[in-house]
Write a structure and sequence with these properties.
The chain is α+β, with helices and mostly antiparallel strands and about 525 residues long. It has 11 helices and 19 strands. The protein has 2 domains: about 260 residues, no CATH class; about 140 residues, Distorted Sandwich (Beta-galactosidase, Chain A, domain 5), CATH 2.70.98. The N and C termini lie far apart (about 55 Å). The structure holds zinc ion (2 copies). It is found in: Periplasm.
């Protein structure tokens, strides 16, 4: 998976499928790894955290930023963190981390997580935030060093990358399992507990903050490049493969597939593990799970079950990457799974016709100015090219229809939304939006990570009918709130166009008739 192509005026490096133009990238990478290359081996080892850390610890001194993401760590001042908005460094005299959680890990070592408590008794883990960023930083540096080794052939980069990788393999087994979510009290466990942990699936993680990202793709790609560089002995390789990579996959395999918009992220790293570690079972498992995801979680009209275009795009793009990654894969000669299956010149895309339909969905859900038709948790700032003309259409199984007419500046679109709730939903059945005269006249706020998020999901914040001042029911697989299309006349040219949907399941027991 690594190729170096040398030419007269430029050199292309490919690592993990990424192409770089050499001169520019070598300069950038050299500068990026500079602070780490300036340290001794022992100093580097000192800075690789023995604790996984926590991502979500906000700044109690200011109101900048969102979702407890204000603090940051840099290698220049490695023993504290600072706020990116008000510059205050933590911990400090006003916010001392004078209390601690002590948890004995799976190796019998006590891990201390110091914290400061606010008036509500909420723990702020300033130092653990530093460890979190530090761990991510050294993960990046390991990969940059590997890329530099490929680009320059200089062994010093491979040796430094190997040092980091080996250290991660030493410390990872002792990391605590943690629950790390914005504005929720963090929880630490030893890692010896039986699954399931008492939090929602994938929320107990050991490497990152969310278990979907717990197999380090960056470190796998790093290892692939430097494995045969001479910087890693056979024992080192054994340690890294067993204690780090197989252990990461083993942790994740304690979860049943959740089949969410994060599955492609998880499966991408699982496929990389299969490729790098020559473990065909990982590849077969990934292909099986891709099949489950596409068969069970898309509507027949091609829309991702959650409806929100942002999550539709995240999922379909993620699946597209998996299809490319697996393209042409063959198991080693003679290999078969326990039930006799094997892959030869794999073409997963061919088996997933729904993806073709899915790619059309964001093209359809576009206002004339190119902005996405935001509903549910869709980032309203997203979009692509303006449309040349508008016409009526439906996504009947998702539950969304629109009447459109006109060309260029004269385009008009009226959207009627009546989908259920299958994740990231708003309580917006029979919500309408209107685009006319070059602008979105009646809109949906879509997604936000600000304090207004709760408001954006309410029925009252949408252009629909709120009954008795109550929110619609949120909808789920067990209690669907989905509306039903009762009439759709697309019209053509200047002919009458009509759409009507019944949304009574959004207010069960409260309404006899709820139509628009
Ligand atoms: Zn601040
Ligand atoms: Zn909304």
């Amino acid at each position: 998976m690594v190729a170096v192509v040398r030419g007269l005026c430029c050199v292309l490096i490919t690592m993990g499928g990424v192409e770089m133009s050499q001169a520019q990238d070598v300069e950038r990478l050299t500068s990026s790894v500079g602070p780490v290359m300036a340290l001794s081996d022992d100093e580097v080892l000192e800075l690789i955290p023995t604790r996984a850390g926590l991502r979500f610890t906000g700044c109690p001194n200011c109101t900048g930023g969102t979702q407890e993401n204000q603090l940051w760590w840099t290698i220049e001042e490695p023993h504290s963190v600072y706020c990116q908005h008000c510059d205050l460094r933590y911990p400090n005299d006003l916010y001392p981390d004078d209390q601690s959680l002590h948890v004995v890990n799976s190796r019998g070592e006590t891990h201390e997580y110091p914290y400061w408590d606010d008036d509500d008794g909420y723990h702020h883990f300033f130092q653990a935030k530093g460890w979190y960023v530090q761990r991510e930083y050294f993960q990046d540096v390991a990969r940059w060093l590997a890329e530099l080794y490929v680009a320059t052939g200089e062994e010093k980069y491979a040796r430094r990358s190997a040092l980091i990788l080996r250290r991660f393999a030493e410390v990872y087994p002792g990391y605590l399992v943690h629950f790390d979510y914005p504005f929720r009290q963090k929880i630490l466990w030893s890692g010896e507990e039986d699954f399931p942990y008492p939090v929602p699936a994938f929320r107990a993680a050991k490497w990152s903050w969310w278990a979907y990202m717990d197999i380090s793709e960056d470190l796998l790609k790093t290892y692939e490049v430097i494995r045969d560089s001479g910087a890693l002995s056979a024992d080192d390789q054994q340690l890294i493969e067993t204690n780090l990579f197989h252990a990461m996959v083993g942790f994740i395999n304690n979860y049943e597939p959740a089949l969410t918009n994060m599955d492609p992220t998880l499966l991408r790293s699982l496929i990389w593990a299969g490729r790098v570690l020559h473990e065909p079972e990982y590849i077969h498992d990934a292909v099986r799970r891709i099949g489950l995801l596409t068969r069970q979680q898309f509507f027949a009209d091609g829309a991702w079950r959650e409806g929100a275009v942002s999550y539709h795009n995240q999922t379909t793009r993620g699946l597209g990457i998996l299809v490319d990654l697996l393209d042409g894969y063959s198991d080693l000669p003679g290999y078969t799974t326990a039930d006799g299956a094997r892959f030869d010149v794999l073409d997963v895309g061919e088996q997933l016709p729904i993806l073709g339909r899915a790619h059309e969905v964001p093209n359809l859900l576009r206002y004339p100015n190119g902005r996405v038709v935001a509903f549910h948790d869709t980032w309203a700032r997203e979009g692509s090219e303006p449309t040349q003309r508008s016409q009526s259409a439906i996504l009947p199984e998702l539950g969304h229809a629109w009447l459109g007419s006109g060309e260029g500046d004269g385009q008009v679109q009226t959207h009627l939304h009546f989908s259920g709730g299958y994740g990231h939903q708003h309580r917006d059945v029979l919500g309408m939006t209107l685009f006319a005269g070059g602008q979105e006249r009646i809109g949906d706020m879509g997604y936000t990570h600000t304090r207004y998020r709760a408001w954006t999901t309410t029925t009252l914040s949408h252009n629909t009918v709120t009954v008795d001042g109550l929110d619609q029911q949120p909808g789920s697989l067990e209690n669907p709130s989905d509306g039903a299309l009762t009439l759709f006349v697309p019209g053509k040219d200047d002919l009458l166009a009509v759409v009507e949907a019944d949304g009574r399941r959004a207010y069960p027991g409260l309404v006899d008739d709820y139509r628009r």
